[in-house]
Amino acid sequence: MNNKEIIDLDSKYIMQTYGRQPIALTHGEGVVLWDADGKEYIDFFAGIAVNALGQSHPKIIDVIQKQAEKLIHVSNVYYTEEQGKLAKKLAEITIFNRVFYANSGAEANEGAIKLARKYTGKGEIISTNNSFHGRTLVTVTATGQDKYKEPFKPLPPGFKHVPYGDSEAIANAISDDTAAVLVEAIQGEGGVVVPPENYLKEVEAICNEKNVLLILDEVQTGFGRTGEMFAYELYGIKPDIITIAKALGSGYPIGGILARGDVATAFDYGDHGATFGGNPLGCAVAMTVIDTIESDNLLDNSKTVGNYLKDKLIQIKEKHDFITDVRGFGLFLAIELDRESAEFANKMREKGFLINSTADNVLRFAPPLIITTEHVDKMILALDEMFSEI
Ligand SMILES: *Cc1c(COP(=O)(O)O)cnc(C)c1O
User: Fold this and answer.
1) DSSP class of 42
2) For 89-135, what is each residue's pLDDT tens digit?
3) Is residue 216 in contact with ligand 1, taking CB distance under 6 Å?
4) Whose Cα sits closest to atom 11 in ligand 1?
5) What is the side-by-side order of every strand in the sheet holding 32-35?
């Protein structure tokens, strides 16, 4: 099937919820993807910060094949070695003691909110304006963007929103009924918004002082995206809970809630569950993703190629005054424009580069962690050419 035939199928049989780019992707290798008409693209999008190891990574192909021959799913009625080994690994690479396995970011956040309510016996969750925490009714309520929730009222009670980057607003919003503060280390969907340097440290101190849990949503920032394994390391804080998903399976759907101290044991038997959560295939893949990030020094790559890309973006900003900001860490970068960005993502796609337009006027760069400076050079050349045509 070609692009048009696949798009026609979609428009007839799939609920039209996504604003999609008009191409159908068929296969990929590393950071290169091909569409159904045979056109080639270099990937600076990674399936929304998911494909940490790119496409068709030999180790991912190998682990999926081997695990599929053994066991794909057995339900959480039984134990599996794959779950236990990944949980131990997650505890070793973080400050957290235990994991609950979910299938997606929204499900991880939903579970984290339940965990915080169970632990504290309180109901209220404080989150920030312009945030994104998922699409379930609870997580869309926590999300600080009206467009995602307006049509779905009534929304569940117990949520308060405050401006992002303003720790005093959090201090003022906390009440006797506050269970937790839920916040992204860097707002992803909101446009790669980096908070003031001391913000998360201050939020941590406020939460400690007022006995409120700090839940850091690391669904997008986790697993090397910012150059550190997790963004809480970047800011030197110790949240009580983090939620993870996107890059954990490098494309295989798996997520999780990580908690430490007493919070890690607050769920009792029967309190929470997920049929698919932590199935052996997902856990085996995630284990391989983490091992590969470590063995192939992908945190270093995220930092060095990320800094290289950021420098190039800053140089481009200096040439074009309609670029108003360059920001981000590691391979989690963005430029902000004084105009809409969607048209530029389209033009870059036509030139053979997948980048993402978000928050109306932002172009987000979140390539696989295996990207090289050669790929960056090609993309920057095309970006500069495009902006010079304006
Ligand atoms: C993508 C994202 C989510 C939602 O994850 P899904 O897997 O789409 O449910 C939640 N929080 C953040 C910060 C995200 O970027």
Assistant:
1) E
2) 999 999 999 999 999 999 999 999 999 999 999 999 999 999 999 99
3) no
4) 133
5) 25-29, 32-35, 40-43, 353-354
